[in-house]
Amino acid sequence: MLVTIARRIENFGIEQKVSAMRWLAPVALLATLLIATPAQAAEPLRSHAEDRGKFIGTALATTPLAGEAAYRNIAAAQFNQITAENAMKWEDTEPSDGNYTFAGADQIVAFATQNNQTVHGHTLVWHSQTPGWVQGLSAAAMRTAMQDHIATVVGRYAANPVVTSWDVVNEAFNEDGTFRTSFWYNTLGQGYIAEAFRLARAADPNARLCINDYNVEGINAKSTALYNLVSSLRSQGVPVDCVGFQAHLATQYGFPGQVQQNLQRFADLGVEVRFTELDVRIVMPRDAAKDATQATYFRNIINACNAVTACSGVTLWGFTDKHSWVPDTFPSEGAALIYDANYATKPAYTAVHDALAGPPSNDTTPPTTPTALTASGTTSTSTNLSWTASTDNVGVVGYDILRGSSVVGTSTTTSFTASGLSPSTTYQFQVRARDAAGLTSPLSGAVSVTTGPGSGGGCTAAATTQTQWSTGYVIQPVTVTNTGSAGISGWTVTFTLPAGHTITGHWNAAVTVSGSTVTAKNMPYNGTLAANASTSFGLQASRPNGNTALPSGYSCA
Ligand code: XIL
To answer: Average pLDDT over the chain, rounded to whole?
Structure first.
């Protein structure tokens, strides 16, 4: 107990120290010293989560938060992370075009600030709880609305250290793994996802940006589609930092298969993972057997997160059956949370508590250093790393892969493919081993890798704005130069079109637009370029009056 508290004090800031001390009422301390029963049983969920370096969160609704002391007290004492159940959704924050209302969102952030909790922003781009005025917009206007909404809502809290992450895109997939044909998808195409993430990164470079969905906890068609999307977005440099698994479970449908393996495969892409909306509903009425099954589901989710280093924590979708979305949404189902409607704890509370408290680990021996790190099969954008296994007194659970000083991925085997690299660039990689107690080995020796030139030996694109007026512009010439030492037989230039702009004409290139990304490919007559030779193309675009942005980020391959 004292060791636990001391560790918490080391790991957290002054304010947390004060709140840690508050739990140590003198009587409880005396009891701890005199009685053999572990004092952890009396400690709140958040202190056990903090000991693990993870969060335990809850969604909060603004009405009981304002009106009920019991709701506030439990939320403050038990949880160290908060998600607004509704208050940060589009219909709450921008009910009509350009009219922002932040009363509820600010109430949540103020509560979290008072109680040393972090806030996960939920949610920016979703097909649900988004007002009708957004849904009917033309593509150009919808893009502008998205840009304005993300900049304003994320921007409001960008400098606030309490708001640490956002659900940027929510529920983009159907159950079979195809894209949900929401108004976002139907109007802007699948590029809306990448665009939303880029806009969120621009609005708050420090927030972790998540894609969130339901029925993706186990390995299935939907979670595999999400996995493939996250992998492909990251290889294109789209800033997806985190994947949220909602985890709205129901005892009558069984516990999903391979949850830990699923978390780990996402973690191996280099993203943070988290459970974002955990509840476990039952077919009413409650009885002891259903309570026990429900408790097992909660325990399994906490254990899965405990077992995966990249899992940052678990958020419950509310904590009391008095305030839960379940009875309103699923007829004849309910009792999905860890406190009953009178704020008494249920078996599920004990399950969450004990899984977070866990058996204490007395392992103090880290794994040995991985050796013989080598790189092979290096292309212009990737390289295959492999090394010799570490050993450990208990067992190695995986390896962290570092590029420079940042962890860029994890692996449960002794190899890893580092992708998303830039052509003709030198990188340094190292690996370290990790055991079940979270102890890490020293870093391996470094391997230095220089990627090959881009396809075709390298080319560059340079754009000149020939003329512009308030509602449009002509970019001419975009000069494409073969910078390689051999001839090329084709080129592709990509660049970013500002939100709300539309290409109205182009010449000497075949042009396609996906979201904000424009792709211009050579025509049959200007694809062949000798070393150092150049050609050019041009385009005309319209833009909303007064928006003076121009395309940016030209690259050539
Ligand atoms: C739910 C809220 O809990 C309800 O109060 C509201 O009426 C509807 O939305 N997935 C999500 C959450 O991402 O935002 C949803 O929350 C539950 C499903």
So the answer is: 89
Q: Does the beta carbon of 130 sit less than 6 angstroms from any atom of ligand 1?
A: no
Q: Which residues, 6+ apart, have CB-to-CB distance to 87 below 8 Å?
A: 62, 93, 104, 105, 107, 108
The predicted-structure confidence for 316-374, as pLDDT tens digits, reads as follows: 999 999 999 999 999 999 999 999 999 999 999 999 999 999 875 566 788 999 999 99
Nearest CA to ligand 1 atom 9: 86
Residue with the larger pLDDT of the pair 499 and 546: 499
Atom of ligand 1 nearest to the CA of 328: 7
Closest-CA residue to 276 (of 85, 43, 494): 85
Bridge partners, residue 385, by sequence: 375, 416
H or E, element range at 61: none
C-alpha to C-alpha distance for 105 and 501, rounded to whole angstroms:
31
Answer for the pair 290, 282: CB distance below 8 angstroms, yes or no.
yes
Structure confidence at residue 298 (pLDDT): 97
**How far, in Å, is the centroid of ligand 1 from the Cα of 86?**
7
Question: Beta strands of 171-310 (E only): which ranges?
Answer: 208-213, 242-245, 248-250, 272-283
From 60, 65, 85, give the residue whose CB has the most ligand 1 atoms within 8 Å, as the site to mutate.
Answer: 85
Peptide bond into 123 cis (omega under 30): yes
Active site residues: 171, 277
Residue nearest atom 3 of ligand 1, based on CA coordinates: 325
Q: Is the CB of 85 under 6 A from ligand 1?
A: yes
The secondary structure element, H or E, covering residue 336 is none
Query: pTM for the complete prediction?
Result: 0.63
Token pair in block for residue 115: 């109680």
- Helix (H) / strand (E) element for 49: namely helix 45-51
Task: Supply the residue whose CA is at minimum distance from atom 5 of ligand 1.
Answer: 325
246 lines ligand 1 (CB under 6 A): yes
